[in-house]
Amino acid sequence: EVQLLDSGRGSVQTGGSLRLSCKASGFSFDAADLGWYRQAPGRSCELVATIESDGSPSYPDSMKGRFTISRDISENTIYLQMNNLQPEDTAVYYCAAALYGPDFVWRVVGHFFCPADDFGHWGQGTQVTVSS
Q1: Percent share of the chain, pLDDT over 70
Q2: Residue 104 reports pLDDT greater than 90
Q3: 89: which DSSP letter?
Q4: DSSP state, 123?
Q5: Are 85 and 33 in contact, with CB atoms under 8 Å apart?
Q6: Cα–Cα distance between 132 and 122 in angstroms, integer?
Q7: How far apart (Å, rounded) are the C-alpha atoms in residues 63 and 71?
Q8: 54-89, pLDDT tens digit by residue?
Q9: Which residues contact 63 (CB under 8 A, 6 or more apart)?
Q10: What backbone torsions phi and psi does residue 103 show, to the nearest 5 degrees?
Q11: What is the 3-state secondary structure (H, E, C) of 23-85?
């Protein structure tokens, strides 16, 4: 059974940092594409970062610079380092795993809610709150 366990929830002030973790099990970790999405109140589910099976990170343009995704294959864990956090980063953050092979494209268009029910495997989500 595929399982993803998010952790690292927290509250910080503007400009602060947090690191989220996602422990994976039930699949070949180094053969999967993994990523982080977030769900803020009143907004669509939003892609934050992905890391491909070969370890290559990728970020939407809006997320470049403050977010860093990484993985530890020995721990079957991915991380999301978040720096210079702003109040608009307040959201529930979800890790997700895509086990579809090399042609999979992470969803970035359209309005949908996290966790999506039509693609990927999802963690339970972890709350990040940034106060001004």
Answers
A1: 100
A2: no
A3: G
A4: -
A5: no
A6: 30
A7: 18
A8: 999 999 999 999 999 999 999 999 999 999 999 999
A9: 47, 48, 49
A10: -95, 5
A11: EEECCCHHHCEEEEEEECCCCCCEEEEEECCCCCEECCHHHCCCEEEEEEHHHCEEEEEECCC
